[in-house]
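Protein folds are increasingly written down as discrete tokens. With that in mind, we are printing a sequence and the tokens encoding its fold.
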Amino acid sequence: MWYLGITTTRHIAPSPGADKERGEFAVERQLRALGLEAVAPRKIEFKRQGKKRHAEPVTSAYLPGYIFAEIPAAMFTKAIQCRGLSPSLMAVSPQEVRRHVQPFLSKVEQENAEAQRIIDSRDRAAMCQFEPGAALEVLAGPFADRVVEFTGMVQSAHDMHPMIEAQMEILGRLTRVKVDPLDVRAAS
């Protein structure tokens, strides 16, 4: 029988002496150690943090505070004793698992496989945290306080780092501009 469990979101050690990790992932590790199928879906996003010019991969919980697990009746009592897991689990019918849970988990797996491909190929342009067409607010430079439309990441031979390429209207025409990644943020 499949269950949806509520977990802690704080960092805990899945076993004594182990490194601490997010609650969902620690519970997943404990359930798998019991030989059960457990999934705490992960999301890999590319975010630029601090003053870094490049976006870096960041792994987080796709469903913070939740985990899916297939737990046979004989293992239920042992499973709910996992550290960080609420003992009240919600049963998910086999029909719901087929129609909703499995397709969702497959979609997450495909997204993560694509993100891993980008990480493995070290494709800095694909690691950009913005989607083409996204509105960006320029914070500094000649286009300060303007909103531009993100088109992609580019790096010319003379550029020391990748630049954001965007388009904006200047004198009634759409014009391509380059902006330092540190000088933009998503428009609110």
